[in-house]
Amino acid sequence: MASETVLDEREVVDPVLEAEVSPPTVRRKREPLLALSRDAGPAAVNLAARQIRALVSEQPDLLEAGLQIYQDAKKKAVGVAFETPLGEIDILAQDSQGQLVVVMIPDAQEIAGSVSGILQRIGWVRKHLAGDATVRGVVIVEQLPETVGYEAAGLADVVSFKTVRVSLTFQAVDI
Questions:
Q1: Which ranges of the chain does DSSP label H, i.e. alpha helix?
Q2: 147 CB contacts (<8 Å, ≥6 apart)?
Q3: Which of these, 116, 157, 162, 155, lies nearest to 124 by C-alpha position?
Q4: Is 136:129 a contact under the CB 8 Å cutoff?
Q5: Which domains does the chain have, with CATH numbers?
Q6: 112-134 confidence digits (pLDDT tens)
Q7: CB 3.0 to 4.6 Å from 93: which of 16, 61, 76, 101, for a disulfide?
Q8: 3-state DSSP call for residue 45?
């Protein structure tokens, strides 16, 4: 007779010994808090798209000096998760020259559709918000697939692609 394994808090009886035994301990492998690459130099931290969105929305000038979150007529910052009929714009910003900047930060599985997605959103912003302002787009990705790079090459004056890396270093403290 084979022994039965139950993976919950109920009592388990070993059918061979007919005695009560403790249930087995199930250890789940924890997901790493941050994915690190161990290339030469400091460890590079790979952030999830949602983490990058949060970082850039809180500090847009990290992406580009002078970049600010888009403000409505009442000077209220409304450019984070900006809703349009075409879908959400991750970050709608304005640069130091007054140009509107559509920032898209796709999840890894959405990168292939990022060129058409950002062009649609740039078109919507031009038609409904820009007035005389120029509109351009920035797509932030961890790694740019070659095929997307070819698509983007024809649009380089309108859409730029940027990769993001955050380095992690540890330093000794003098005590």
A1: 49-58, 114-128, 146-153
A2: 112
A3: 116
A4: no
A5: 35-168 (3.40.1350.10)
A6: 778 889 999 999 999 999 999 99
A7: 101
A8: strand
